[in-house]
Specification:
mainly alpha, Sodium/glucose cotransporter, 75% helix, globular, disordered C terminus
Length: 515
């Protein structure tokens, strides 16, 4: 492989990212600019930015890797990733924007009138955000190593530096410009090589996908034939779908995007456009998994299945054309990593800033200049922790790690948001109990999975895909405890519910949260 093409593509994406981000530097002055781009982002622009942010390493590389290694069952992943936005559109998008909050902890404190609930939500945001950031750094290391042979930490470091420059310099306003452009870079980078490979496949014959490496008794192309070795594939599939469909609304970096729209109607239009943009993108990753089975039935020793997308063009098409296609995919992968990492960093930095830096260090409170400096310091912490974890983490699939973040989000923030928006009898005690129980159960399952303590049988299936039992458990706990503690229903619930559900014209005078 001619590494110069791929390195040039990656460098070009980084330069474009920094150049576009620089345009936002001059526009970002206030804390509102840094947190929510002053709530001035139009639906089309915001939808492109959401697509850029949401389509991470797990989408660009991980879905193809899982389809390649595990087969047809993994086609549910792009379905779940996309349907999650439909659920979000129906249940929480517009009311959440009308809440006037800047972060999930902001919303929780406003709805439940409890500083303790806010702190609990802050811990969960950090957990989910850092768990989601780790595979972005790992994906960067994998991509750079696959195309150039560079050590994996080098890719991690490149992403960390570029993300920090953009976030520290311009905050949400700058990142919005970057992510919107990066969505279209990613779609171009993944679609053009896919069409070239498809044309090559049609012109040069149609061999049957190789299944020599598939475990005995399983068929790569047969759904529900083993789900990666799990002994209960039907349960695992439905649990994964639950996590993806309901976990999307609990992802902090997804929700913060809806605060940037000017009103609830714009939020609904944004989400509708996002569904179309995601559907377009997810047509392509499964093709790379299937073509990998045809042309790369056996990967080089020590190569992760996540790298199949990057290795495929040169394995199929000899010469410069294959090298250029691989370079295009490498650039697209880096665009995916940078955009998602930027959104996550904004979200985590916001929580660190509001709940740790400003709460502990008085010199970062007061005017906008001081507050912005606190945000910038928080952004450094938001990147440093997952960067270190990405170096220390054991080998694990990118989509697998992201799936665990979805499991925690679906088991904590999803019930909180749905009940908090639609059920006026939710009490502070009930919400807190549900968050503690759901967070503890899902986090325990995640830790056992990450550290290799999961074995076969039902125990392995339940721990690897916990959403099917942790999500209902959280909903039951929140409901039962709330009904048992009616005196703990916040006094301002009626006023808050009006703000969430009334048109902006009527609820504007009820006030908004400020950072």
């Amino acid at each position: 492989m001619n590494t110069s093409f791929s390195i040039t593509a990656i460098a070009a994406v980084c330069v474009v990212t920094l150049t576009i981000g620089a345009l936002g530097f001059r526009l970002s002055r206030t804390t509102s600019d840094f947190y929510v781009a002053s709530r001035m982002v139009t639906p089309t622009w915001n939808a492109s930015a959401i697509g850029g942010e949401y389509l991470s390493a797990a989408s660009f590389l991980g879905v193809a890797g899982l389809v390649y290694s595990l087969g047809a069952d993994m086609l549910w992943l792009p379905v779940g990733y996309t349907v999650g936005y439909l659920v979000l559109l129906l249940l929480v998008a517009a009311p959440l924007r009308r809440s006037g909050a800047y972060t999930i902890p902001d919303f929780a404190e406003a709805r439940l009138e409890s500083a303790a609930i806010r702190r609990l939500c802050s811990v969960l945001v950090l957990t989910i955000g850092w768990l989601y950031l780790v595979p972005q750094f790992k994906g960067a290391g994998l991509a750079l190593h696959a195309v150039s042979g560079a050590p994996t930490w080098a890719g991690n470091l490149v992403v960390a530096i570029v993300v920090l420059i953009n976030v520290v310099g311009g905050g949400m306003r700058s990142i919005t410009l970057v992510q919107a452009v990066q969505y279209w870079i990613k779609v171009t980078a993944i679609s053009v090589p896919a069409f070239v490979l498809l044309s090559w496949w049609i012109q040069h014959g149609q061999p049957i996908p190789q299944v020599a490496s598939t475990p005995p008794g399983q068929q790569w192309s047969q759904p529900l034939s083993g789900f990666g070795g799990v002994e209960h594939p039907v349960y695992a599939t439905y649990s994964m779908l639950l996590a993806l469909c309901f976990g999307t609304m609990g992802l902090p970096h997804v929700l913060v995007r809806f605060y940037t729209n000017p009103d609830g109607a714009a939020t609904r239009r944004t989400t509708s456009i996002v569904l179309a943009l995601l559907g377009l993108f997810y047509l392509f990753p499964p093709l790379y998994g299937a073509f990998g089975r045809i042309y790369l039935p056996h990967l080089p020793v020590g190569t992760s299945p996540d790298a199949v997308t990057l290795l495929l063009p040169t394995a199929v098409i000899p010469g410069v054309v294959g090298q250029l296609m691989s370079a295009m995919l490498a650039g697209g992968a880096f665009a995916a990593l940078l955009s998602t990492a930027s959104g996550l960093t904004i979200c985590v930095a916001g929580v660190v800033d509001q709940d740790l830096v400003r709460g502990r260090l008085r010199r970062f409170t007061g005017n906008d200049a001081r507050a912005v400096n606190g945000f910038r310091i928080s952004a450094i912490a938001a990147v440093a922790v997952p960067f270190w974890l990405s170096l220390a983490a054991r080998d694990m699939g990118l989509a697998d790690t992201v799936g665990l973040a979805f499991a925690i989000a679906s088991s904590t923030f999803c019930p909180l948001l749905v009940l908090g928006i639609w059920w006026r009898r939710l009490s502070t005690t009930g919400a807190g109990a549900g968050l503690v129980v759901g967070g503890a159960l899902a986090s325990t399952a995640v830790l056992l999975t990450v550290f290799g303590q999961v074995h076969g049988g039902w125990a392995g299936a339940l721990l690897t895909q916990p959403a099917a039992w942790t999500l209902p458990t959280t909903l039951v706990v929140m409901t039962v405890v709330s009904l048992a503690t009616p005196k703990r229903i916040p006094r301002g619930t009626a006023r808050t519910m009006v703000r969430l559900h009334a048109p902006e014209v009527l609820s504007a005078n009820l006030g908004e949260q400020r950072p």
